[in-house]
UniProtKB/TrEMBL annotation:
SUPFAM superfamilies: S-adenosyl-L-methionine-dependent methyltransferases. GO terms for molecular function: S-adenosylmethionine-dependent methyltransferase activity. Residues 47-140 form the Methyltransferase type domain. This is Methyltransferase type 11 domain-containing protein. It comes from Mycobacterium conspicuum. Gene3D superfamilies: Vaccinia Virus protein VP39 (3.40.50.150). It comes from the Bacteria.
Length: 216
């Protein structure tokens, strides 16, 4: 649920920027384990989209040469820069939105998305842009909230249509992110779903998709 937008207007989520650092500090161990798995084995130049407070920075393996992290929300970005200064690998934090982040002279080897594609205003356009930023054969690692089925899916649609996006940085819980990846041109190499909270709990963000998609 990190704050990234496809819009060009400034990103300003004061309530979310107060809440998210607390959530990140007390993140469930199951989510922490999935974060580590999502970053395992990475190397080369990495673009991290929606860095939030920099939760991932300490988890990157030493084989990563550089991380360029995008976080347009100013309060979160300030915390991310503190985390970057203490990271075991070089991390640069940019305040641009995803769409403002232009094509680099050298494409990235990897794009990392952690709890962020739920918050972009146009996920299809965002993923097409990320596709263009990757080298051929590069991969997109994702750990994302995803649309659930049945009663929980109905609950997700209800909260998405009411206060949830307004309170939590434009987070939309009922998105078919993996279909959007395919539509953008990616090939999904590995994918699985994980429950990070008991099934009976009413939270709409309990189910996460962990996977790897490749630019052909």
């Amino acid at each position: 649920m990190n704050a990234v937008s496809c819009a060009q207007s400034p990103i300003d989520h004061p309530f979310f920027a107060r809440v998210w650092p607390v959530v990140a500090t007390h993140e469930a161990k199951a989510v922490q384990a999935l974060r580590r798995e999502n970053l395992a084995g990475l190397s080369g130049r990495v673009l991290e989209v929606g860095a939030g407070v920099g939760t991932n920075f300490a988890l990157y393996p030493p084989t990563v040469e550089q991380v360029v992290a995008v976080e347009p929300e100013p309060r979160l970005r300030a915390k991310a820069r503190v985390a970057a200064a203490n990271a075991p690998i070089p991390v640069t934090v940019s305040g641009e939105t995803m769409e403002q982040f232009g094509l680099a002279a050298e494409p990235f080897d990897v794009v990392v998305c952690s709890l962020v594609l739920c918050s972009v205003r146009d996920p299809d356009a965002a993923l097409r842009h990320l596709y263009a930023l990757l080298r051929k054969g590069g991969e997109l690692r994702y750990l994302e909230h995803i649309a659930s089925a049945g009663v929980r899916g109905f609950w997700q649609r209800v909260v998405d249509a009411t206060l949830w996006p307004r309170l939590f940085g434009n987070c939309h819980t009922h998105r078919d992110t993996e279909q959007s990846l395919v539509d953008a041109g990616f090939q999904i190499d590995t994918s699985r779903r994980e429950w990070t909270l008991p099934f009976w709990m009413p939270m709409p963000v309990s189910e996460l998709a962990l996977g790897r998609a490749v630019r052909s």
